[in-house]
Specification:
Rossmann fold, 225 residues, alpha/beta, 11 strands, globular, seven-stranded mixed sheet, four-stranded antiparallel sheet
Length: 225
């Protein structure tokens, strides 16, 4: 989900396996097509996921014909599993798809309920300061290939900490437009929300390769226990 995050699956898997060595049970919120789940399952993890998109889970099943990953359709802000996990993961800004503070708190409470003793919760989200200062919609253009571009328009409601991203792909055919709404939280606010739900910040990096998190960081990977 926008804002754009450079995807480094290898670094992501390396850090997750360092934080929680196999064998272990992993829960991923927004499991999608299995970019994280399938490599973890191949390394001996028992992986479970929740996603709100039937289309994504259909693609996951196509990529996982042996059923190494268990996944179901649902809302990770309201739906628990009744199980405990050694590692709970939510990446690529997916946590911010919970579009109110109340839904984010509900998600964090479910994390606490499902986290095993000595378990870890890993969140990857963008650092919102540059976007919070936007006074008018911004437009960026990304080249997707020789004959395709993506137009990204971002508008922000600072009072509600809401960001609306509209993405239009132009490739010579019928334009394809999608919209995402996110409720962003600043790092210190995220820490307070987590603390209110019984979670404590253990570590924060600027990305999955463990670059230091600084005032110039565009995102953060935060680990809670």
């Amino acid at each position: 989900m926008y804002p754009h995050i450079e995807i480094d699956t290898e670094a992501t898997i390396a850090l997750l396996t360092e934080l929680c060595p196999a064998p272990a049970r992993v829960l991923e919120f927004g499991i999608g097509t299995g970019r994280i789940a399938l490599p973890l399952a191949a390394r001996g993890y028992e992986v479970y996921g929740i996603d709100g998109s039937p289309a994504m889970l259909t693609k996951l099943k196509e990529k996982d014909p042996d059923g190494r990953v268990s996944a179901e359709i649902g809302d990770f802000t309201t739906q628990g599993t009744g199980r405990e996990f050694d590692l709970i993961v939510v990446v690529l800004n997916t946590f911010f798809s919970a579009v109110t503070k109340e839904r984010q708190l509900s998600c964090l409470k479910l994390v606490r309920e499902q986290l095993a003793p000595r378990g870890r919760f890993v969140v990857e989200v963008f650092e919102p300061t540059p976007f919070h200062s936007l006074e008018r919609p911004s437009l960026t253009v990304r080249h997707l290939g020789c004959n395709a571009i993506m137009l990204d328009t971002i508008s922000v409601d600072r009072s509600m900490q809401l960001m609306v991203g509209v993405h239009t792909i132009l490739d010579g055919g019928v334009p394809e437009t999608t919209q995402h709404v996110m409720r962003y939280a600043f790092p210190n606010e995220l820490d307070l929300l987590a603390e209110a739900c019984g979670l404590r910040l253990e570590q924060r990096w600027g990305d999955f390769s463990k670059q230091a998190f600084t005032a110039a960081s565009q995102r953060h990977v935060s680990v809670y226990v």
